[in-house]
Structure formats: C-alpha cells, structure tokens
Amino acid sequence: MNTTISSNGLPQLPLATTNAENGAAQTATATPSASSSVSQTDDSVHLTDSARALQQASSANAPVDTHKVEQIKQQLAAGTYQVNPHAIASSLVSLEGQIGGSK
Fold first, then answer.
1. How does pLDDT run across 48-97, given as a tens digit for each residue?
2. Angle in degrees, CA 78, 82, 88, rounded to 5
3. Closest of 81, 59, 57 to residue 70, by C-alpha
4. Closest CA to 70 of 6, 2, 1, 9
5. How far is the C-alpha of 101 from the C-alpha of 103, rounded, in Å?
6. Three-state SS sequence of the chain
7. At 35, phi and psi to the nearest 5?
8. Model pTM greater than 0.70?
C-alpha cells in the first residue's frame, strides 16, 4: 500500500514499495486464489526522538508565507522569475559566518 506524507505544504511524493510488497502484489496478480489467503496488515510509522524534534521545530517556529510561495510559483510558471546572484552570495557568506563562527 502506497502512502503519501505531507508536511508544511510540501509536495506529496509516493513512497517506494518494499520488495515484500512487490512480491505480494505479484503473487496476488499471478494467482487470484492467492489474494484471498494474503492477510492485510495495518501500516504504521515510528518516529525517532530526533525526527519528532525536527517536526515540532519546523511546524512551530517557521511559518510558511503562502502568499510569497504562490507568487514564486506563478513567476516560475510564466518564466519571469529573476535570480539575484548577489543576494544569494551574501546570504551564503552570512550563513558561513554563523556556522563557522565569526573570525
């Protein structure tokens, strides 16, 4: 069973099926009687403490500006989105200073 997971408005992507799921699907398609003997199980997800912390931090402290996202989507679709290399370079230098510490 494929499940899609969405967080903070990011696009939903189908999850890859495991070899066990592929084998069960092939068996079910190859022999119709085999599908009646295959029991369906409930899927479950277990998050690590780190994953829970990241999920809470991303949802609590970083709201998404949906208006800005829509503007960028429209500009990309129209081919009018302009990249500012100087702003990108400046932000990267600033980030490097934060990560590496100011010298």
1. 988 888 887 776 666 778 899 999 999 999 999 999 999 999 999 999 99
2. 140
3. 81
4. 9
5. 6
6. CCCCCCCCCCCCCCCCCCHHHHHHHHHHHHCHHHHHHCCCCCCCCCCCHHHHHHHHHHHHHCCCCHHHHHHHHHHHHHCCCCCCHHHHHHHHHHHHHHHHCCC
7. -65, -30
8. no
